[in-house]
Amino acid sequence: MGVTTATHEFKSSIPAPRMFKALVQDSANFFPKIMPQFKSEVVQGDGGVGSILKTCYPEEGTYD
Questions:
Q1: d(CA 18, CA 33)
Q2: pTM over 0.70
Q3: Closest by alpha carbon to 4, among 56, 42, 44?
Q4: What is the pLDDT of residues 11-28, one digit of tens each?
Q5: Alpha helix locations (H) across the chain?
Q6: How many Å is the Cα radius of gyration of the chain?
Q7: What is the dihedral of CA 4, 20, 12, 29, to 10 degrees?
Q8: What's residue 59's pLDDT?
Q9: What distances in angstroms separate CA 62 from CA 19, 46, 59, one per listed residue?
C-alpha cells in the first residue's frame, strides 16, 4: 500500500463549485458510475462530516 499524488489541470464548461461537488464531495457515488473498477465504502460514520471513507483503485485499472 502506498500514497500517490497526481495533479492535472483542464478547462471545463462546468462551473467550479459543481465540479468540486462531483469530484470531491460526491466522489463515492460519482466515480463508481464512470469507473466500475473503483470501489468506495464508508468505514465509520454516515457519510457526512467526520466520516471515514475508504477508496480503492485496482492496480490493473486504467484511469485515462
A1: 17
A2: no
A3: 56
A4: 999 999 998 888 888 877
A5: 16-20, 27-34
A6: 13
A7: 80
A8: 72
A9: 21, 30, 8
